[in-house]
Amino acid sequence: MNPKLIKKQFEKSLDIYNENAIVQKMMAEKLVLEISKIKNEYENILELGCGAGLLTKEIVKILNYKNFYANDLVEKTEKYIRQVVPNCKFYFGNALNIKPTRKMDLIVSNAVFQWFENLEKAEQIYKSILEKDGILAFTSFTPDNYNEIRDLTGLTLNYRTIDEVVKIFSNDFEILYAEKFNHILKFANPLEILAHMKNTGVNSLTSKHWTIKDIKEFCDKYKEKYPDIRLTYAGMILICKN
């Protein structure tokens, strides 16, 4: 995992991320809805990997809070978040390295935890900065995510199953809600899939530069194996209490 590469690719796609991140928007909406059913009032909220504000917008629509804190690898995200939460406080850099000056009542994140290679470490870090009875809520992806891409290229992240994630976080948290789901997107051709992945920052899976020959071979194989030109998203939602 190369944080510099991840940062570079997401920085490139930031301006167009929200309009292309169809599934991530659905996940953000569902996450906040489920959080609100558990508790709707928070003193301090910390959002990890805020990006261009996809989740932030859902939070301010539904949840009540006093102080909002945001984190992202990309400094450019600040201008997007301040349009939604003008008095937000930022922690830039790796989400595992931030050191808030106060305890949080809610730590929330959308489509970020799949980038953490060590979930056990993340679990310990976020437990330490949560208030007693504070809530940690996030979405991530499971091993079937982008299975077409993995099948054709071998490229994938070290995704955990929802059972594995629940087991890790149940060591120190009470699990309040866990759900997994699949969502399939259809495209006109494989080039549109590559563009979709680029526009949502996912081409940070590899630093390899694809030649025209590589792209043609990929498209030919995709159409042969998946003639419906689909791309599978396999997501999860987990909400737990400290």
Report what the structure shows.
The protein is of the alpha/beta class. The chain has a single domain (3-146, 157-183, 230-241), classed as Rossmann fold. Helices cover 42% and strands 26% of the residues. Strands 3-2-1-4-5-7-6 form a 7-stranded mixed beta sheet, with helices on both faces. α2 packs parallel to α3 (54-62). The protein starts with a helix and ends with a strand.
Q: What would you say about this model in short?
A:
The protein is an alpha/beta fold.
Q: Going across the major beta sheet, what is the strand order? A: 3-2-1-4-5-7-6
Q: Uncertain regions: pLDDT < 50 for 5+ in a row?
A: none
**Shape annotation:** globular
CATH fold-type name:
Rossmann fold
Quickly name the level 1 CATH class: Alpha Beta
Going by CATH, the architecture would be 3-Layer(aba) Sandwich
Tell me the span between the first and last alpha carbons. Answer: 28 Å
CATH superfamily: Vaccinia Virus protein VP39
Counted by DSSP, the helix tally is 9
Range of helix content: 40-55%
Beta-strand level of the residues, as a percent range?
25-35%
Radius of gyration: 18 Å
Based on secondary structure, the structural category is: alpha/beta
The main sheet comes to: 7 strands, mixed
**How many distinct folded domains?**
1
Average pLDDT for all residues: 91
The H/E string reads: HHEHEHEEHEHHEHHE
The counted number of beta strands is 7
